[in-house]
């Protein structure tokens, strides 16, 4: 059946979601990337669309079908993702789920050859898309980030919420095998405190988050 609800709680709202990894090229055949299947971001985009939002999903390279009713923009690098996000504004809601590569290198034009000495890569930081939205005059009214952490999960997430001027941070324990898996254990960090959610299917995390977004707007 049709899962899109034109009269749902998010009808008339534009939601912007980032998902998946980014890839930063080293040369024409190699890249640096993060481990991310895109599943959690796609599930959130689908749940928002099912509640009536107009959804723009900016996705890095993933092997997933586009959820029903969602407008998808495919990108590769962090710079491309930042540009696609800026081009999709204004938005009422932004949920930044992408595992953006933190560093890029100046890509070589030709394939780097093996010479017996490993190349020394010079890293530069990529643009922080969530922080950019947090500072923007076109900041979405509800700005939500994710924080993938392997230790001190909630403390890092609380710091990120303030540093990036986000409303909520969904803190994500990636110390196990979450990356690419079906389930997620998250903590929702808001100005009011921290909620510990039980281990949930990524779809259920998407549903619950979309419901909370509907309540907040
Ligand atoms: N993020 C982003 N752009 C980046 C890096 C991160 O938009 N260049 C977003 C992510 O999509 C996520 C949030 O910022 O919503 C936190 O990402 P995370 O990697 O946990 O935080 P960082 O600030 O990159 O810090 P670190 O990797 O050092 O923990
Ligand atoms: Ca990071």
From TrEMBL:
Q: Give its E.C. classification number.
A: 4.1.1.36, 6.3.2.5
Q: Which reaction does it catalyse?
A: (R)-4'-phosphopantothenate + L-cysteine + CTP = N-[(R)-4-phosphopantothenoyl]-L-cysteine + CMP + diphosphate + H(+); N-[(R)-4-phosphopantothenoyl]-L-cysteine + H(+) = (R)-4'-phosphopantetheine + CO2
Q: Does the keyword Lyase apply?
A: yes
Which family does the entry's similarity section mention? In the C-terminal section; belongs to the PPC synthetase family.
Q: For this protein, what does the record note about how its cofactor is bound?
A: Binds 1 FMN per subunit.
* Cofactor(s) needed: Mg(2+); FMN
What is its biological role? Catalyzes two steps in the biosynthesis of coenzyme A. In the first step cysteine is conjugated to 4'-phosphopantothenate to form 4-phosphopantothenoylcysteine, in the latter compound is decarboxylated to form 4'-phosphopantotheine. Catalyzes two sequential steps in the biosynthesis of coenzyme A. In the first step cysteine is conjugated to 4'-phosphopantothenate to form 4-phosphopantothenoylcysteine. In the second step the latter compound is decarboxylated to form 4'-phosphopantotheine.
What is the name listed in the Swiss-Prot or TrEMBL entry for this protein? Answer: Coenzyme A biosynthesis bifunctional protein CoaBC
Q: Which organism is it from?
A: Stakelama saccharophila
Among the GO molecular function terms of this UniProt record, one is: phosphopantothenate--cysteine ligase activity
Per the record, which residues fall in region Phosphopantothenate--cysteine ligase? Answer: 15-217
* Pathway where this protein functions: Cofactor biosynthesis; coenzyme A biosynthesis; CoA from (R)-pantothenate: step 3/5; Cofactor biosynthesis; coenzyme A biosynthesis; CoA from (R)-pantothenate: step 2/5
Span of domain DNA/pantothenate metabolism flavoprotein C-terminal: 10-214
Q: Which keywords belong to this entry?
A: Decarboxylase, Flavoprotein, FMN, Ligase, Lyase, Magnesium, Metal-binding, Multifunctional enzyme
Q: Which gene encodes it?
A: coaBC
Which residues are involved in binding CTP?
A: 102, 111, 127-130, 146, 160, 164
């Amino acid at each position: 059946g049709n899962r899109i609800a034109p009269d749902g709680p998010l009808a008339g709202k534009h939601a912007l979601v980032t998902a998946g990894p980014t890839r930063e090229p080293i040369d024409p055949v190699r890249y640096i990337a993060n481990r991310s299947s895109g599943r959690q971001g796609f599930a959130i985009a689908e749940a928002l669309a099912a509640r009536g939002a107009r959804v723009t999903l900016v996705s890095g390279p993933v092997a997933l079908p586009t959820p029903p009713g969602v407008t998808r923009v495919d990108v590769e690098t962090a710079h491309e993702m930042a540009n696609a996000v800026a081009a999709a504004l204004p938005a009422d809601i932004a949920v930044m789920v992408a595992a953006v590569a933190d560093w890029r290198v100046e890509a070589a034009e030709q394939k780097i050859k093996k010479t017996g000495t490993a190349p020394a890569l010079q890293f530069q930081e990529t643009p922080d898309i969530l922080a950019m939205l947090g500072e923007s005059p076109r900041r979405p009214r509800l700005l939500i980030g994710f924080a993938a952490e392997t230790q001190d999960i909630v403390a890092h997430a609380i710091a990120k919420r303030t540093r990036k001027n986000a409303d909520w941070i969904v803190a994500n324990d990636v110390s196990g095998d979450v990356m690419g898996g079906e389930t997620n254990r998250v903590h929702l960090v808001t100005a009011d405190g921290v909620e510990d959610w039980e281990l949930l299917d990524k779809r259920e995390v998407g549903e619950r988050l979309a419901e909370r977004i509907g309540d907040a707007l």
